[in-house]
UniProtKB/TrEMBL annotation:
GO molecular function, one term: aminoacyl-tRNA deacylase activity
Name by which UniProt lists this protein: Isoleucine--tRNA ligase
Motif 'HIGH' region: positions: 60-70
GO cellular component: cytosol
Gene: ileS
Organism this protein belongs to: Limimonas halophila
Amino acid sequence: MSVDYRATVFLPQADHFPMRARLPKREPQTLATWDEMDLYGKLRAQSAGRDKFVLHDGPPYANGHLHMGHALNKILKDVINRAMQMRGYDANYVPGWDCHGLPIEWKVEEGYRAEGRSKDDVPVTEFRRECREFAERWMATQIEEFKRFGVEGDWDHPYATMSYQAEAQIVREIGKFLVSGGLYAGTRPVLWSVAEKTALADAEVEYHDHTSPTIWVRFPVIKAPTEELCGANIVIWTTTPWTLPGNRALACHPDISYSVIRVDETYEDSLAEFGERLVVATDLLSSFVGEVGIKHYVEIAAIDGKKLSEDVVCNHPLREAGFWVRSPVLPADFVTLDQGTGIVHIAPGHGTDDWLLGKQHGLDIPETVDENGVFLEHVPLFAGEQVYTPKGKEGGANRAVIDKLREVGALLHRGTLRHTYPHSWRSKVPLIFRVTPQWFISMGKNALRHKALAAIRNTKFYPPDGKQRLYDMIANRPDWCVSRQRRWGVPLPIFVHKQTGEPLRDPDVIERIATVFEAEGGDAWFDSDPQRFLGEAYDAADYTQVQDVVEVWFDSGSTHSFVLEQRDDLKWPATLYLEGTDQHRGWFHTSLLEASGTRGEAPYEGVLTHGFVLDGKGHKMSKSMGNVISPQDIMNEKGADILRLWVVAADYAGDVRISDEILGFHADAYRRMRNTLRFLIGTLHDFDPSERVDPAEMPELEQWALHRMAETAQVIETGAQGYDFTTIYHHLYQLCAVDLSAFYFDVRKDALYCDRPDSLRRRACRTVLDRLFHALTAWLAPILAFTAEEAWWAHGAGPEESVHLRQFPEIPAGWRQDALAAKWHKVRQVRRAVTGALEVERAEKRIGAGLQAHPVVHIADDALAEAVADVDLAEICITSGVTVTREAAPAEAFTTDDAPGVAVVVRLAEGEKCQRCWQVRPDVGSDPRAPETCSRCADAVTHLGMAAA
């Protein structure tokens, strides 16, 4: 009686973990199951008493659907939190939102404009209510979208900067600066948006290409210590002609050399005049005369910058037309030779450097333009002219100034320049520097700068260069402007005495305001009698109630105080802040300043930054370019786990590219890793712990596999400590796709499928596979959060309800055997030579499968020969036999650079094909109980009781 040998082969059984993942359908089901089992609650209960790992969430803005930048940021946070949880920490994640500020106001105002209304026609509290409702709607939407990424966190109790508790705490935080004297009212230039009619923080500014007019202007010298300078014209160059009405000085660098030249000949269209004397930087002379059309000139004097800035005074170029201003020449280190003339016109109301230089030398700091960018009535000649319209179009100010300069003979040349220029991140209109009364936190008062710099030195940065970047920003930044002329925000809790102009610095008043806000929110500031906040100690009639709101970067910079400090399930300072690299000037920056000013140290122990998301060609994504990729579309088509692979696969310390081609590559990598898990599940479907073999009794190949697990465990630990999940991912991919699927599994399939169940080799292999399954599902869980869970449930391998309730396995140190690994590295070199030779034979159709072959392997290299001396190469190379010889190889032998010193000649194996294992062996048919099999398979069939009668 013949035997159906297929029934005696132990093939994998993994139908419950299909090769086709169908992630878009399966992942929402997994999310529902996590919700039903209260996975978050179980994680918190499991973690009680552990050391806390707190990744404090930088608040995204509640005003739209999530984009790829959100996906990169939130998934990376989730990968880190899950890994830290599985390393034995209590890694509670509390998501949060930024809810105040200009973008939300702008959206609500858009609705008003569409209806022909103005927000000025709406009561403040009604407008604020609409802003709050807008933010609430988008918070709810974004919560569901973040969950779909697979992000685990306290979604039922997130934080929001617009919560009454948060608004009250922000009042207390700003109040600390007020009471300590660090908060003051001042007039200085700020970046101003004429569209939004408010000052903007650095982090709210984008830089785009912009075409500006350029002018070279004469400033006549009326006082100088040398005869050559008297009567000469110092020439300046500027891209902002409209700032000239605010000019109050000139600046030169004390270490730059300057030349006084006499114009002897000009080109026809030049505005330069024969015989006039001009002063410019010597190193810029050549480019200068070419620009302004001077054909011939004579250098009549040279003067260094130090001398030029000593007792030299010019008239304003429009003095005769009504600007009765004199402009002294001052020394300034910020003057460069990059372009222009090496001499800068100083308008203290229109630039930070100008303002600082003006303050240093006691210059008048005029206010020339209003909130609409329109010249004020007191400005001679140009009152009513506008710099930019609310839609960002150029007004008439530049043209009016240039025309007047030409009319009075002060204009030497004009042109245009295409350059980067600051724009509002919301309205996209160009910005202006405008001097306005604002509220500032002093960087010098209470040693804030010193404290912040010290805190940076005590903080770990990932990557390390972020430390110097933030340090330089803090070292050089001006005082912090924290007031905004808007409505939707936390009101500045300030009362100013009408007679003295001094703010009220009373902690009791601050606490009274905060207490009211905790119960009613910031709206109370606008609809309450001021006396309610002042109490009995002060008379409201003596004070002006400030109507500005706190800038939103102070809101988010204060989150540590109302999240980390006020929740028992978190800690202060946070273990880690993680955001995009732009947050060195944003959230990292303002959180550092706020905490350093109120607590004397940073609110974080570490700072990790990632880059921006770009398209496949390295371009920024924009709707106008049509290159925007939506994370929702990716998840609907491929699944969130593909998105999660994309996050960790790239070096996220830099910019990260995404495209259909890149996602296709990650989908292929995912399939390889999934197939690794599928093979493990299939071959372990009936595994019993009683099968386990002690590592010391295992064959070398199994010991090598355990060594690779030990190596991987070290990579996981080192990578997790440094938040380097890119290295972790690539190592896991190499392990799954190359070391396991393409080598270890490939070699051991024969033993797994065909050995007797009680054979040492098969039992040892299954022991290793069991260990691998438990380790891989844990190691992959932070990255492939859905797939690792699916595999864990499919195999039913442990008591935990979820793979995410597990911890990373402890791998015995004894499993690591570097000498054994070195030996098997050489074995695999020889194997690559054999498999290469087999591929050639298959391509030539001389064999159909490797089991038909019996290669002869010529090894000239002593180390390689020694490595394979006690190894069954036929088993390793998956052939029916191998002959190893030290004899010289024939000329036609196959060689490869991967295995120098190895040459292979492929011969056909002798014998018959075993109908069970398909090896070609001479002993096929030797056992009458299974006449069509080799002796190994006949023994297995007999053991199974399925031999022929």
